[in-house]
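User: Watch each token:
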Amino acid sequence: MSEAISRERVEDALFRAGYWLLFGLLMLPIVVVFVTSFQQSSYLTFPPSGYTVEWYARFFGSEEWLGAVRDSLAIGVGASLLATVLGVTGSLAVQRSDSRAAKLLPPIVLLPLLIPPVVLGLTLLIYFNRIGLTNSYLNIVVAHTLWATPLVFFIMQSVFARFDWSLRDAGMDLGARPTRVFYHVILPNVRSGVIISAVVAFIVSLQEFIMALFLKSFEVKTVPVLAWTSLQSSLTPMVSVVSAFLVLASIAGVLLSAAVMNLEWLAEQL
């Protein structure tokens, strides 16, 4: 008996060690990014010879970089809202329909994720030029929506799969219109899933680079595109500062999602 317990403890210790080793390897690039963003040297090296916040001061003092941040945030919000609306309504339609067309929708929605972003970016560039659509904000929002919508769709599929549809049927039986049932019965019960989907869509848009590179203009550049442009001239710690900004934005999105889930759990307990 003691032998079995000892073996279980060894296996548990090995599993924990492997878990933390894998976690450390995954976190190591992020640590390097944050460390190098504070280095004194004007050329990116690791480990740094000294530390300073000068590069952060330059970042926040640069109208070009702040403009890229504003562009990225505006495009991210637009893509997040559009992808959330399309993903939620599409997922809802599939859940409540038994037609063959509804069964074909999930693989169709998945298609943009299977197409290389280079192909999507080039195709969209040719298409937008053909129809005369030259608004870079709208072009990039549409491009990012193509990638974000499938993620929202499949997240909401799992959320709607756990929803009690008898509540919706009860609302309809009481004479409420479908839109009223959605806003007052369905949406409050899936609110956390919708918020998490929107956050995921925003992060996808914020990080996307290749399609934004194809569709950018002189006036509109996202943060990843401007980072790539600056890399072509010099490898300065400014790249690490920008990378740190993107990592922090992703972490903030994850924390927001976790906070929403905890608030939903607390509401259920009360």
About this structure: DSSP finds eleven helices and no strands in the chain. The CA atoms of residues 237 and 258 lie 31 Å apart. The mean pLDDT is 78.
